[in-house]
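chain below, 417 aa
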Amino acid sequence: MGKTVLTIEGEHFVINGKKTYSEIEGSKPNVHGLLMNARFIQGVFDDKAAPERFNRFGRSFDPDRNTNDLIAALPQWYAAGLRAFTVSFQGGGPCFTVNNNTIDNNPFSEDGRSLDPAYADRMDRLIRAADELGMVVIVSYFYTGQTPRLKDGRVVLNAVRTASRFLREGGYTNVIIEVCNEHNIARDHPLIASSEGMVALLEIARSESGGMPVGCSGLGRYINEEVCKESDVILIHGNWLSRQEYYNHIRQVRAWAPGKPVVCNEDSQAISKLEVAFRTGSSWGYYNNFTKQEVPADWSITRGEDQFFAHRMAAGLGIALPPIPQEEQFYLQGMEPGLEYEGKRWIRLASLYPEKIDYVEFFRNGQLYYTCHDEPFSVHYIKNWQQDAVLVSPEDKEWKAVIHLVDGTVLVRTVAL
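prediction:
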């Protein structure tokens, strides 16, 4: 048996006989039993097609080093209150750079009856490292960008059994299973995409894993009654959604399947939704597709968005971290060295308290370039987790963010190039 033994009591998570966070002096009673988490989906990533293309951002990529770097960063996240993270056997899409359809990140054999030993080893090391710290791993089996590599329904069934038996044979006690990330868009496999098929896969995963808690997420705007009722942990995604829509999702899934824990395990950098989670007694999952999904990932708590999430999470849980000076609570992000890719950058204004912002004006070389009114405040905003790039120009000398707060205050953050 592992050092971290996860059990579920109604809507609450319990580790080693105590509700999560209850062991922390000064923690808030309303957060006891929650499972604040982050999407570290690329923790065992590899690319059999062209791994050399991930030698970028000033770093080289190596799959074992990638996993080791995540393991090394976990204590930093744990200290801020993170108690779980999601990692997938099939990874996730680098949303802004490489076309995921060209990546071969599938550890399942052609018939689905075996796992690539290298993937299995990396997943084992990651789960055991989390166990040593007192963290839970949400192990996701399928990612819709990779499910086309499973040739038919029989392979899907075999892969679910194979992954579940791997977890059972590992003897892990700190795992939640997510059968598929956003299953409803796996249109190549009706067995995965349909609610009826997913209910069957959830039952198989639970049985073959020896009774580990199971769940399955849908696209941010999608929830399903049958899947909720079959799940031990109701997994939802908050990306695409406003705070009100997110709140409505939580109300709905609880009405369908009362008495179960609700865990968002993918949202965005829109950290104001943390407050919705705390008020509703549900768990929230931070998703930064820049620092944590574009391989090679920087798994540490990086300056800006990661740092602000960590502090907001800690504050909500009652964990005291060194305060961030007021002048550092707004950060013009995206111009860091090495983060240019094929002449593109992704520029945004990160904030510790985005709720205080009315709108942000972005100036390029002194000329108004773009205005953003929604969190997270990014140039070329598309959705709360997605934005278009800015083409880099040799004429660029300065980017400036003029921040208009709701109280009428105007702040400026400038990066000289």
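The chain has a mean pLDDT of 97. The longest strand covers residues 136-143.
thats it, cya
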